Amino acid sequence: MRTLKIKIATLGVALATVGLLGSGCNSLTKTQKGAAIGAGAGGTVGAFIGKAAGNTALGAIIGGAVGGTAGAFIGRNMDRQAAEIKQTVPGATVTREGEGILVKFDSGILFDTDKSDLKAAAQTNLQNLAASLQKNPETNITIIGHTDNTGSDTYNQTLSVKRADAVKSYLMAGNVASSRMTVTGKGESEPIADNTTADGRAQNRRVEITIVANDKMKEQAKQQAQ
């Protein structure tokens, strides 16, 4: 019974936080929203929200939030880096979320159909992204591969991992430390569009890269908040 009550309380906080971000905080900046997420929910609930939403990238960002004034400090750092990536990596969709950054590449930009070898044209984008990651070393990076639902679950899962690994390898070649990066493949399990249409399937074939503060940046942020 006690465990059930804890789960219900946790869910209540999570839903309240989602409601706050979805409606009452429409006028807030991304930095302010990042502070609100961490202060209201904390990392554990943040990860729960992302998982419940079927969104690994969102979970990675919200799950690492510290919130409060420290979260706002981190958010300002992320604002600067997000602006830089938008300017230097034109092939990516760059979104500020909470205390982190979500960088999304449609798979067609990076790979030929059904392939996991990077296109030559994709390499400039990833070189520029690697340069930004090098200049901002106090972050952790998660690379998440996704596919549409064409083919078997097993095949799509394997392809999504291979594509995420290919991105990681190229960033490592650009002197981004392997220890900063985590790779995961989600196959067809986290669609963002309708798989029954060609346009929807194209949107679902993607690689997402999340950028969040590492322990050093979090500690600096907490000191700044004192």
Automatic annotation (TrEMBL):
This is OmpA family protein. InterPro entries: Bact_OuterMem_StrucFunc, Gly-zipper, OMP_bac, OmpA-like, OmpA-like_sf. Keywords: Cell outer membrane, Membrane. GO terms for cellular component: cell outer membrane. It comes from the Bacteria. The keyword RNA-binding does not apply. It is found in: Cell outer membrane.
